[in-house]
Amino acid sequence: MKLRNILALGLGGLMLSAALAGCGSAPASTPASGPAAGSGTGSTEPVNIVWAGWSGEEEASKPIFQRMMDAYRSQTGDEVTWVGFTWNDAAQQLLIRAQGGEQLDISQADITIFNTLAQAGVLADWNDIVGEEYLKENFEESALAVGNIGGKQLGMPWSMAALTMVYNPEILAAAGWEKAPATLAEFEQCMADIKAYDPTIIPYALSTKDVTCGADFVPWLWTYGGGIWDENGEIILNNEAGVQALDWYKDMLAKGYVTMDVGRSEARQMFAQGKVAFYDDAVVAKSQIVSNGVAPDKVVDVCSAMLRPVVKAGDKPQAVQWGSMLVVYENSQYKEQAAELAKVLNSDEVALDYFINAGYPPVTKSAAASDTVTNDAYIKTFIESTATARLEETARMTNSGEIKTIITEEIQYALLGQKTSQQALDDAAARIKAAT
User: Fold this and answer.
1) Strand pairing report for 156-167 and 304-306
2) Are 191 and 252 in contact (CB under 8 A)?
3) For the residues 246-256, what does the mean pLDDT come to?
4) What is the structure's pLDDT at 16?
């Protein structure tokens, strides 16, 4: 396959131009650009750093993020301002701020967003900020490797686990299933039994809109033995395995097991309300359940992770590597203060609070080894899924969102009966080839 030729720097320039034209403007609460009062000049006056991301925008996570920022304020005496975006807008908005002169000191970045920012050349090296010794003492090498590019530690681990499937054990038990299905045949029978038990419950809130649709189709492609590209970089999305996977999607829709116009956000909310039996998510699924009034230690009664069903027994369950890192920006005047925030966020007390209330597994050696984590039933299968998880195929591409949007659109054409599965995937393959 040709080198992905939409470079992040060019993308950032286009995004900046769009922003200047009035699109994707930052929230009104965004602090003014430039240095905070009294900082960067040797003054002992408190400084105000800007922390950006998307997780703090979720209603269930807002109280947790407030506690994080309060911990930083109390420990350092400095101020931190949160600037939030939706996940879909995060990469664009972070680039706009980083390249447009607005203050941006530290942000979260998942694997996909991290690659875009790294290739744009806007990130600082954590080795220079906190030192290699601190990083090696606190994080496993495998976790550091996710954020290391060309020997530069551009991402500090924050939370990592696989994105797999979750289910409601109470709904399954009511439909006659004491454990999650392991094969596709069992999965289909389970969905049929759930629909027979209560027709108002959506058996599987499969993502059928926005980029989460394109992203969630990939592990099902892998399940059928396919993929977007082969090992030589040739597009195989439209081969027999891809058609089988999309035909399976169409069959589930025809039987009423899945529905249209569902994205990750809608699936998460309906699942928390007991209206969905299965959906795809990362460990953050827990936060929505807790926010609905379920005690953290009771979450597994209504929300448990499962291995993705396989075509035949003995196949490897497929999952997507999922992780969130912390990045500091090269243009920041407050890298040291940003580093202090990162240390607070990865401290045992703060990280375990995030884990208990939202399900995000801590990545420091000390917190991961705590009884709180090792004895937690909720995280067990997420960690098990990580053993066979793979990096999502577009994750290292700067136009990842574009590719997943193409796949989403063509899946929708097939689901709505406007194209056959073969036609939809042939068109997707042609569009992807033109985009790369």
Assistant:
1) antiparallel
2) yes
3) 98
4) 32
| Residue 111's pLDDT band (cuts 50, 70, 90) | confident
Q: What is the DSSP letter of 42?
A: S
Spatial distance between the Cα atoms of 405 and 237, rounded to a whole number of angstroms: 14
- Measured CA distances, 266 to 37, 137, 160, 421 (Å): 41, 40, 23, 25
The pLDDT, as a whole number, for residue 345 is 98
pLDDT in tens, 310-358: 999 999 999 988 788 999 999 999 999 999 999 999 999 999 999 988 8
What is residue 300's predicted lDDT score, i.e. its pLDDT? 94
pLDDT at residue 330 in the model: 97
Among 4-18, 161-175, 228-242, 345-359, whose mean pLDDT is lowest? 4-18
Is the distance from CB of 195 to CB of 189 less than 8 angstroms? no
- Who's near 312: CB < 8 A, 6+ residues apart? 183
CA distance 304 to 280: 11
Q: What is the DSSP string of 309-375?
A: PBSSTTSPPPEEEEEEEEEEBTT-S-HHHHHHHHHHHTSHHHHHHHHHHH-PPB-BHHHHTSHHHHT
Q: 272-317: per-residue pLDDT in tens? A: 999 999 999 988 898 889 888 999 889 999 999 999 999 999 999 9
Q: Are 262 and 282 in contact (CB under 8 A)?
A: no
User: Is 391 exposed, middle or buried (CB count within 10 Å of its CB: 0-12, 13-18, 19+)?
Assistant: middle
Tokens representing 170 are 């109470």
Give yes or no for a contact between 424 and 414, defined as CB atoms under 8 angstroms apart: yes
For the chain, what's the residue count? Answer: 436
Asked if 329 and 104 touch (Cβ cutoff 8 Å), the reply is yes
Using CA atoms, how far apart are residues 186 and 194, in angstroms rounded to an integer?
A: 12
Record the pTM: 0.70
The stretches of 234-312 forming alpha helices (DSSP H) are: 240-254, 264-272, 285-291
197 to 172, 249, 270, 277: CA distances (angstroms)? 10, 22, 18, 12
From residue 62, alpha-carbon distances to 158, 192, 273, 327, 380 in Å are: 17, 37, 19, 20, 25
Q: Which domains does the chain have, with CATH numbers?
A: 8-37+47-157+325-376 (3.40.190.10), 162-320+393-435 (3.40.190.10)
Q: Which of 45, 62, 46 is nearest to 54 (CA)?
A: 62
Residue of 138, 278, 137 whose CA lies nearest to 195: 278
